[in-house]
Amino acid sequence: MTTRRTRTRAAVVATLLIVLATALLGTASAQARPARFVPAGSISPTIGFDPAAVIEWRLEQSIVNQPIFVRVDPYFPGLTDFSLNNWCNCAINWFNHTTQQGGVAFPGPLPAGPIRTGSGDVSAWTDIPGGFTLIRGQGNWWVP
User: Fold this and answer.
1) Is-contact 119 98, C-beta < 8 A?
2) For residue 75, which of 132, 36, 133, 128 has the smallest C-alpha distance?
3) Which pTM was predicted?
4) Least CB-packed of 38, 44, 82, 112 within 10 Å?
């Protein structure tokens, strides 16, 4: 009976040690490396009025004064990510001077993910679609 208890205790202790070591050291698994965006610049504040905010009862967001921050990922060339401090009904019109391609991005309250702008010298300007843009935001950055 004593031998049986000793074996049971040894098995329980060994199991706990394996679980503890796995929890502390982790397990080997193949995982994709997450994108690591680094700051690349910013787009100057867009100033204007958004009537859609009044209709949707977002009165504190009807007057727009929003800078937009630009980040790029050096490990995945050609990607640009835009981030905001506050929700903005802004359209970011971007143009890559190196590849001669352009597009429009609409950042919202949730992260939309990176935009494939291509590598090179990128410039952008912002508007408030359906609203009144008093001062356009403008910016320029380099995408690896």
Assistant:
1) yes
2) 36
3) 0.70
4) 38
